[in-house]
Amino acid sequence: MLSVQNHNVETQSRDLDDPQVLLATLQDIRQSVFQEGQQIFSQWEPHIQRHYFIKSAKNLAYYLALRHHDLRTLQAALTPWGLSSLGRIEARVLPNLDAVISTLGAICSSEPKSLPSRPSIHSFLEGEYLLRNHTEDVLGKIYNQRWVRIMATLPSTAANNYKNIQDLLHKGTNCVRINCAHDSQQTWEAVISHVRRAEAQTGQRCKIMMDLAGPKPRIERVIAPYGYKHIFPGDSLLLRRELPDLASQDNSNSLTSGSWQATCTIPSIIDKLQIGATVWIDDGRIGGYVECLMPFGVVIKITHARDKGEKISAGKGLNFPDTALKLSPLTDKDKEDLDFIVTRADIVGYSFVEEVADIELLQQELQARQHKNSHPLALVAKIETPQAIKNLPELIIHAAGKQPFGVMIARGDLAVEIGYQRLAEMQEEILWLCEAAHVPVIWATQVLEQLVKKGVTNRAEMTDAAMAERAECVMLNKGRYQAQAVSILDDVLKRMQEHQSKKTSQLRALHSWEFDGIISDS
């Protein structure tokens, strides 16, 4: 049905100057969106246990139905009539359609009974209210002039530095992140104690998110060729299941004696690699492809690295975007960490989520650990693969249908997995889908990175930070100048919310130039 309606919009495009044709086209689209949206929602409804989320789930279903259309011609036809071009429809699909149809019907002097009721201001803005409420469920209330939250990733040294945490809260941090890939429960306990103490002394609530490490493939050990400290384009890296005993190494084999060699923290991945498969190391700083398969590993031909070379060391992440790894997102270590997390944290961060089964697996583990009367942990799913983007609507329904839920755009791994040139495009789609479901989004990875690490910033970083205002939360990585970055980000976000809300421009009076001279000369 939707494909037929889409065809009608395209074939009638030359007639859309006629308001009667435009009105009929909109009414057809509205009917098909409602019908297919109801069909989508009926499949989702059995998985929704939180009654509070039903309206949001329905709006997401209507949004998916709507986006099966190519609406660009229709948008252009609506604009000359001073009507909404539907470009801000995410949070309120049916109310937005009804408002446009009702107004266009009045222009056409249509019979009122043939038109939908004009939505009230409250019903028209209900999506925005729901998004704010769902954001508070995950990230807590906010009491200053800024709507977008700031999250700070805490370093290991925070366990011995209460003043730093106090300073972060004082400057505007609303949530802190502890990465469970690092440190011990003893360190985490000390950090959390400092956070709770700082809350009491500053009077500012601060949510704690603990990020499960997940099955992140990393370089485990490295052997460099004699005399080399950097790897260059054209070099080869032998990725092995295990490194040989150097004393007994067969030096007659040039592939093992003259090449870089390394092992992976998840050796089983090597068996899944095929010739030609892409491999990225250290968030894309080093890249290559599988040149040949060996009995003890694979040879990776390095194609991407700076001309002056790159250092390669243990602990650096590995990405295999062409290879279906099929790893469980919950490791045995993650399950042990969950025993600690459910009693200390407010939010659990979930890495490498791709399928509904991944969400259900974590929910089962949480249910087994949480008391029936305890407040459920909020869940934040990190979106970092093409498969996760593809399944995002289903992930949202199965997660938010049971507990407070948010999405993190993990731009580091995501950029490597989908390609840097597609990051902005996919980032937009994630923002749209989450807004349609009234689900908060965390904008993460390398925000003001130079400022956080070195105390200086650049134009590109500031522009990126300003665009982050479209999310509900912005995450800063750890670094020496993190508190300074919080202050600057706080200022940028406050200024930007005066200019825009999501994709809507806020038409406040301009103060960057004066009218006086123009008016006096006219």
Q: Can you tell me the overall shape?
A: globular
CATH superfamily of the largest domain: Phosphoenolpyruvate-binding domains
CA-CA gap between termini:
56 Å
Q: Helix coverage percent of residues? A: 40-55%
CATH structural fold name of the largest domain: TIM Barrel
What is the averaged pLDDT score?
A: 90
For the largest sheet, list the strands in their spatial order.
Answer: 1-2-3-11-12-13-14-15
Tell me the structural class. Answer: alpha/beta
Number of helices: 20
Write the CATH architecture name of the largest domain. Answer: Alpha-Beta Barrel
State which percent range the strand residues make up: 15-25%
* Count of beta strands: 17
Overall tally of domains = 3
- The CATH top-level class label of the largest domain: Alpha Beta
The poorly predicted ranges are: 1-11, 247-256
Tell me the radius of gyration: 26 Å
Q: What is the subunit organization of this protein?
A: single chain
Question: Main β-sheet: number of strands, strand sense, barrel status?
Answer: 8 strands, parallel, barrel
For this entry, give a set of tags.
522 residues, alpha/beta, TIM Barrel, M1 Pyruvate Kinase, Domain 3, 3 domains, 8-stranded parallel barrel, 20 helices, 17 strands, 43% helix, 16% strand, globular, disordered N terminus
